[in-house]
Amino acid sequence: MKDLKVALVHEWLISWGGSESVLLSLSRLFPGAPIFTSIYAPDSRVRLAFAECEIEPGVLQLIPGVQRLYRGLLPLMPWAFKRMDLKDFDLVISSSHAFAKAISVAPDAYHLCYCHTPPRYLWDLYDSYNPGLQGVLGSPLLKYLKRKDFQVAKNVSGFIANSAYVADRIARSYGRDATVVYPPVDVDQFDVVAVQGSYYLAGGRMVKYKRLDKAIEAANRGKLRLIVFGDGPERARLTRLAGPTVEFTGGVTQPQLAELIRHSRAFLFPGVEDFGILPVEVQAGGRPVIALAQGGALETVKAGVTGLLYEDDSVDGLLDAVHRFEPNAFNPMECRLNALRFSRDRFEKEMAEIIRQVSGRT
């Protein structure tokens, strides 16, 4: 595939997350490919990961203070991506959870979209993200963005979804089929150590849809020792909810996360994720997951083997699952073997094979 002229497109490059991990692997497959993005305002981890890449930020980069305002610029992003000049490329791969897929390509080029999710706030979680008066006032703009999102999806040559759950959402939102390629997880950063766990673990990016409040409420009611890692806009509210058995660590490095996993009893996962990298990382460290039986957890956790899946989406439902949980019933090596299915090498091999097929390089 060395004769292909390839461009990569990513929503924005600001902080590290699962979509940036996908982009890293794509840049490893095509090390000379430029990365087009709406805004480049990287934290230290993003800057280091893409230090050798050619980054091409868009017109929104010119707005003063854009690194603080970027989420409010979503209405401008379809326009900003569409005006990027990608006509000289044979293959364009977009990494999209909003409007990166709005780019225009040459008539004979192939646009492959790795879709992390159709925008939740425009489609199946519209009411949850836009309640009450906020939804009423924002309705004209949100309806415009939904129409635009549907229109730009028509111009994608082929979709890849990060889970079967997202593939179903792509079908319902856009009427398009998608091939499932699970995102890369750095499972080799974790290992299995025979340590008796002394606390439950929860965390990640502290935003509302991850429902960390349910894990905290369950710990309060059950007087469970819970360590919560991560940071985000929900941090202050979650801290106020916490009782004396709940401890917050703030953001953690990968080695610090591995240490937290090593000494935990299980990871509490009460939210609904499109895929969910953290449950895989926990299993890579030999620990089981107690997860709501919805979304990506149904694909990453083997019920009764690497974790416990519960149906009742409430604090009582989670607490009941914790009470039913028996740590000795789960084999650490079974947890790790399950996690190895999601390795970075596997992702890159699967993506390379799909790209060979769509580019006619088989």
Tell me briefly what this model is.
The protein has 362 residues and is an alpha/beta fold. Helix content is 38%, strand content 16%.
Descriptive overview:
- By secondary structure, the protein is α/β, with parallel strands linked by helices.
- It has two domains: 6-184 and 343-358, 3-Layer(aba) Sandwich (Rossmann fold); 187-342, 3-Layer(aba) Sandwich (Rossmann fold).
- The protein is built from 15 helices and 13 strands.
- The protein has helices at residues 18-29, 44-49, 66-69, 77-82, 126-129, 132-154, 164-174, 212-222, 235-241, 254-262, 277-284, 297-300, 315-324, 332-339, 344-358; strands spanning 6-10, 35-37, 55-57, 91-96, 110-115, 158-161, 178-180, 199-203, 226-229, 246-250, 264-269, 289-292, 307-310.
- 44% of the residues are buried.
- The model has no long low-confidence stretch (mean pLDDT 91).
SSE string, helices as H and strands as E:
EHEHEHHEEHHEHEEHEHEHEHEHEHHH
Overall CATH class of the largest domain = Alpha Beta
Structural class: alpha/beta
Question: What is the average of the pLDDT values?
Answer: 91
Q: In whole angstroms, how far apart are the ends?
A: 9 Å
Helix content: 25-40%
The radius of gyration is 21 Å
Q: Strand share of the residues? A: 15-25%
Number of domains: 2
Strand element count: 13
Low-confidence runs of at least 5 consecutive residues: none
DSSP helix count? Answer: 15
CATH-scheme architecture of the largest domain: 3-Layer(aba) Sandwich
CATH topology of the largest domain: Rossmann fold
Main beta-sheet strand count, sense and barrel state: 7 strands, parallel
In spatial order, strands of the major sheet run 3-2-1-4-5-6-7
Shape: globular
